[in-house]
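Sample pair:
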Amino acid sequence: MSLFLFIYHHHSFFFKFFTINSSTNYKTLKPCRDGYDCLLQYDDPVEHNATYSHPCRWSELCRDVNRNSEHARQFTHNSHHTILCKYGSEQCSKVTDPEHRRTYRHEGLPDFLQPCKYKDQCRDRSPEHLKKFGHPSNFYQKTTQSN
């Protein structure tokens, strides 16, 4: 079903076309001020994500942008101009460092880490966890000091 909306603005008519679908709301979302570091996109996804968009952790390499219209609406896919890490995903010793991940691309891994809901109180120091989840800088200082 299509809905045509005429909006009067400064003595001019502007024509806007909206397609209404029962499963998708095409409302334009405002960018979330916390961007990649937003915890609400995971903790309170329904309400928060109905209002705010977030950058996709895969940037322009995202495979879902053309396959999933809801993903394309919810996430921005700006080009992340970066270079490949010369050590690769398997050999890189800094693959768990959020700043390194923002600076260098690693094959098979997103450019940006998902924020850990436990923040600096997180107890999981496993490489698998650290490859996926980012933590505040004081978390990494504690990790370095404990080794």
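The first helix runs from residue 40 to 43.
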